[in-house]
Design a protein that fits this description.
Length: 330
Amino acid sequence: MAYQPSTDRYDRMQYKYCGNSGLLLPRISLGLWHNFGSVDDFGVATDMVKYAFDQGITHFDLANNYGPAPGSAEINFGKILKENFQGYRDELLISSKAGHEMWSGPYGGNSSRKNLMASIDQSLHRTGLDYFDIFYSHRYDGVTPVEETMQALIDIVRQGKALYIGISKYPSPKAEVAYEMLHDAGVPCLISQYRYSMFDRAVEAEILPLAARYGSGFIAFSPLAQGLLTDRYLHGIPEHSRAARATGFLKIDQVTEEKVEKARLLNELAARRGQTLAEMALAWVLKDERITSVIVGASSQKQLANNLRALDNLAFANEELVEIERILRL
């Protein structure tokens, strides 16, 4: 039986305008960094994408190197679109990125014009799309002049290969150069993507204020600190968790006793709020008005459903915020 999306899907999600634009993003977006590659179960991946759309998640975040194997997340997502979402392209917001190592040789993993132009063509081919809604420079590589990278992004928009562009993980001085150049070219930076969670707050000092000053939306990845801000590691490392997988990005030595103890205390506070730790961690990121959306990764439909419940309670009492700060300083 052909997939038929739920008719009330947009009533189930909260949306927010992305920076100084007319583009609405769901407060929770689905990332395909994990669990959508060639090593993963395609049926489970398909069910998660369909469930996400049924819940009003319209934004799906990719990158050319997502997998493993690199590129396979885009291939699998393209298959899911072709098999289930014919006729719904205009209701989807699909983003991809380039800049990390993707293919061998000197041109396969930096932020040069050569890499970005080749990468977007490859990514469009893998997904079967005519354009991306958002295309990012995935990183500042430390070598390529920001002006070269930004000109490539400007040209990508003008060529019709992407509607909007964004930057990810740029240090603040380079981000400011990017924002200025893009603004002057009439192709403003729609969105900035950075790691942000209760366990990683580096963006608060400079990046968040800078993005807001230039009218760029902000989307946080790893808001659950790769699972550390869930109840998954409170009593050890489960057999099939990210930390236990050889292909995972969370390593066993990152699951420190110090972080686990903080997670235990935060979990107690979350329970008093009537939330899971994961729900509270997502709500904590979303409480900041400068945050447009958070990207969650999920290994199952059930896990995604649990994350979406964060939207039921985004408000914090001042006493709760004080207690969170106290725990994080331990």
